[in-house]
Specification:
Elements lengths: L8 E8 L4 E8 L3 E6 L2 H4 L5 H22 L4 E5 L3 E8 L3 H4 L3 E7 L4 E5 L2 H14 L4 E3 L3 E4 L6
Antiparallel strand pairs: 1-2, 1-7, 2-3, 3-4, 5-6, 5-9, 6-7, 8-9
Length: 152
């Protein structure tokens, strides 16, 4: 059985891609950011509307650490050592009408990951985890930028 670490932060989040949306849970560990896709929130709809959805999401959040440790197709990992910027961006389209915001994590390889979540807390916690790994973290108007190498 894989070793199950407790994440620093955990929140229901939708991974928003250009051609897909993946509901699930976003987890922050001391060395990586992980999104675990789950259909439990969707399966909860027939069980009782909003209550079923909330129950499905709660179950998915509680199982996310175990799923992340096991790995697989529903698990996407972003090593903290690869992060270049983390930004808080307003959502676009209809989501913008409801005050939607996105956490956008860009790697040094210019790959951008967009998550529908509460960016403010995530940015602070990711910055803290990066500093603990020895990186210099700079504030930007949209979030943070990471120095390319750890400081001595």
């Amino acid at each position: 059985m894989p070793d199950i670490a407790e994440p620093i932060r955990r929140q229901t989040a939708v991974w928003v891609g250009t051609k897909y949306r993946a509901e699930g849970t976003l987890l922050l560990y001391p060395d990586k950011l992980v999104h675990v896709s789950s259909r439990l929130g969707q399966w909860g709809r027939p069980l009782g509307g909003e209550i079923g959805v909330a129950l499905g999401k709660a179950i998915a959040r509680s199982q996310a650490s175990r799923t992340a440790a096991a790995g697989g197709a529903d698990v996407a990992e972003i090593p903290l050592d690869s992060i270049a910027t983390v930004e808080n961006l307003s959502a676009t389209g209809v989501a913008r009408l409801f005050g939607g915001r996105h956490l956008v994590v860009t790697t040094s390889g210019a790959i951008a990951y967009r998550f529908s979540s509460t960016p403010d807390y995530w940015i602070a916690d990711i910055a803290h985890a990066l500093r603990a790994r020895g990186y210099q973290v700079l504030s930007t108007p949209q979030g943070i930028a990471v120095a390319s190498v750890p400081v001595a």
